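Field reference: sequence -> structure
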Amino acid sequence: MMTEKMMIRSLGNEPPLLADGRRAPDRREVSLRWLSGTFLTGITSSVLMGVALFAALDGRQQLAIPAEAYASAAADAHEDTAVVRGGRLIAPAIAAKPSDRAIMEVSTVVHDGEKEVVRRQPFAHVKMTLAANHVATEDYPDFDPLAIFSADEPQPAPQSRTGAIYGSDVESEVSLKTIPFPTGKTSMKMASGLSLEEVEENVRSNGSVLTDGNTQLAALYYVDPRRFSNEDADVDLTAGLSARVLEQNMTVSASESITPQTEEFADDILPVRVDTPIAKALTDSGYPQQYADGIAGFISQQLGSTDLDKGDVLRIGIIQKGEQAKIIRASVYRGTRHLVTVAVDDKGRYVPGSEPPMLDAIATAFDDNSFAPPPGQNLPRVYDGIYRAALSYGMTKDMTALIIKLLASNVDFQAQLRATDSLEAFFSVADSAGQATEDSELLYVNARFGDTQTRFYRFQDPDDGTVDYFDESGKSIRQFLLRNPVPNGIFKSGFGMRRHPILGFARMHTGVDWAAPRGTAIIAAGNGTVEKAGWDSGGYGNQTIIRHANGYESSYNHQSAIAKGVIPGAKIRQGQVIGWVGTTGESTGPHLHYELIVNGTKVDPLRIRLPGGKSLQGEALAKFEDERKRIDTLLNNQTSDQVASK
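Structure field:
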């Protein structure tokens, strides 16, 4: 137990020591010197910490980059990194790096009359992570699918303002002029002619290099080739000689007018996604039970099994006349390999049949054409992401609208962005500030959205002077035909056998249905000539048929009205408004019944492999490949001293 005496002994009872005769401070007093020192120390520490933090962030407004940005920005460094995305209460913030933009001086050549002018001008090379926190420098138009596909696209200038990339650097502007080689009189002395022995020696020494791979470029078959061959070499006198037969594309039959009673043939492609009995695969696709049992029984005899395996494709050939549909053929494919075909003879019996011509739809039967946005994301739409990033990197609204239009056939602009979506562009600018102007031109784009990559280059065709954008192989990036003539419509019914909603029995649905409110604009799927525009007595209501190149036709049905000027013989451009959604004819609600006809046969517009647009050939293709290689080399060899801060 601690006593009072023991406590006094432990604490001491002597008075405190004093320095310089001063008394000990009273605890109730406040030292002004201590207070001012503490205050100044706090202010100094805060200022130093702020300066250090600002320098570390390098001007950015965030402390960390989320996992998605890390995965996108450093993909090469950690290719095996798996990033799992989930829902967030706060939208992710991804930073744009200053190294994403470079300004470089590039030599270009422009044709000016008889001269070619080579000059240096600035270009911007940008690599945009679209999911970053970009702030648009100006307002941009709201998403309007009709405007994206509209035909009111500004036409490029007849002469390229930027020109083509020149192969060498120049110090200043250089003018080049090409003149024909003088073949007439000249002041220079002509050399003496070659003797026969000298000619033979030249042929002997140079004949072996007159080839391009396995193709002989020049041959003197009117002279015995043994005369110029090596003594020990075997000479094939028939080498280089070949004949090619060109098939004539012509017809001698008179054209037949299409009526509701005209027989129409269609192929119905049914992909098998799970192991399924043959009869069930048919009934699930809308075929009546009696047809399904009859076909399944005969196919199973030829196939040796009553079931179809996962990955098989069932192809049904149908003849439809008016309201009657008749199955005339059925084939089974394992992947793209043909297994068995059965057909109906004149007596209505099933007999073994020969393999029908292959369709591209067989190989693409399992392609998924839907674009579902990834769940749990708070990122903006693809459309907004492209505009915000492009404007913040110095591109103009017109240039961005052009990119949107060129990507429209491959990209779903209403889907949400992914953290890995990116856009790379190369375009001319006014100066080292990197700001594009009205005279700037877009030369190259490399877009990646999910697993889809689209790359195209600008090129002026020397044959007709037109300017367009082409992929790596020289094919135009513009689509030959659009698959959906109602850009903001909702897919309702596909191509194939189904139960008719009005007639009540199964029949072949020879098109696809796009539902939209009455009065929604319908646009032309491609360039062509109006073949029919008016009322159809066969149940289609107001119908427009447009004839395109190479045997393609598109049909637009149940329209509430047909646009003014859309009459037989009228020329139509892709994206032009040709009518409005309605419910005329045999229809249960406002929608567009869209059909695609190839050489008289109706095909699935969503699955058929459509031809591309214009393709470069010959000398134009060779010049395009040279231009493409120069651009690729220029962008791949970009050095760090060309980088300018964003």
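Note: The first helix runs from residue 4 to 11.
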